Amino acid sequence: MKPLISRFLLVILSISFAYSPFSFAQNYPDKPIKIIVGPGPDLLARIAGEKILEDWGQSVIVDPRPAAGGIVAGDSVAKSAPDGYTLLLSTGSYTINSVLQPKMPYDFQKDLTPVSLLATLPFILVVNSSSPIKSVKELVSNAKAQSGKLNYASSGNGTPAHLAGEMLKQMSGADITHIPYKSAAAGVTDVLGGQVNFMFVPAPSALPFIHSNQLRALAVSSPKRYSQLPDVPTVAEEGYPNFSIVGWNGINVPAKTPASVIDKLNKEFVKIMRQKDTQEKAIAAGFEPIGSSVEEFTQFLKRDISRSSEVIKAGNIQPF
Question: Does residue 4 lie within any of the structural domains?
Answer without folding.
Answer: no
